[in-house]
Amino acid sequence: MTKQKDVSINRVTIDSHVHFWHYHPAEYGWIDETMTALRRDFMPEDALAVMQPAGIDACVAVQVRQTLDETRWMLRLADEHPFIAGVIGWVDLRSPDLDAQIESVVHPKLLGVRHIVQAEADDFLLDQRFRRGVGRLVEHGLAYDILIYARQMPAAIAFASQLPDVRLVLDHLGKPDIRQDGFDSWRRDLARIAAIPNVCAKLSGLVTEADWNRWTIEDLHRYVNAAIDAFGPERLMFGSDWPVCTLAAQYGRIVEIIRTAIDERPQSEQDSIFGGTARRLWRLAV
Fold it and tell me: For the chain, first and last CA: distance in Å?
């Protein structure tokens, strides 16, 4: 078994976005025939085995199922594995018993919650009930991860502008349409959401928005550099989106994409992207 580093006493590099699951077809229907390599279990030991050789010490586990049971399971994993620095779980943000749901999963490593908005209607984030629920997260010290496609960015901008007190995190840079070269419209929207000061973003998920078999590192650097221009390194954090990223590239290659994009920047900026931003945003002790 791979030896785990005790991340509680170290200043460490952090992967802000990994997933774990016990695969079952009925519970992971989104893993279709194009993703058969993901139709197996992915557990903390598997993650650690690829993270350590790539120089990444700790991670944040992010929900993929919209159930309280999955959130509780991830928190148990975080208790068992010190390198899991935190969890982004799920609660029903439109529920009248939202506060009770949050209290049922309260835990020192619960950092925030997420809803799979990319699977919802493009105006979903404008739903007043949902927005009120996200606003309640402030009372519980939780952040919110925004998971959208680029076409949903206008709604996300309006949503974020109405929640100035909530710590918001844009997953996967808003999933730009890299395959179809949707750079220009995405960059305009990214600048608009970056102008909202309580929004941070993850440098994650890009490789699977590109052509899985034909992407180049230069293609992805274009998007990384645009994100740095928009947010600055102090509001960006590295995320692998492991194991989903393995559809297009192995873990070490994902780390390389970001490291080579920023290797000429000051060390302080590199440190922000590979851990500092995550520590500040989620108030991590690692």
Answer: 23
Residue 84: beta bridge partners? 59
Q: Could you please report the per-residue DSSP string of 142-185? A: -EEEE---GGGHHHHHHHHHT-TTS-EEEGGGG---TTTT-HHH
Amino acid sitting at position 163: L
Q: Which residues pair with 143 in a beta bridge?
A: 112
Three-state DSSP state, 215: coil
Place of tokens 């994650």: 204
Distance CA 162, CA 125 (A): 11
**pTM exceeding 0.85:** yes
pLDDT above 50 for 1: no
Task: Please state, in angstroms and rounded to a whole number, the distance separating the CA atoms of residues 54 and 70.
Answer: 28
The DSSP symbol for 60 reads: E
**Under a CB-based contact definition with an 8 Å cutoff, are residues 206 and 173 in contact?**
yes
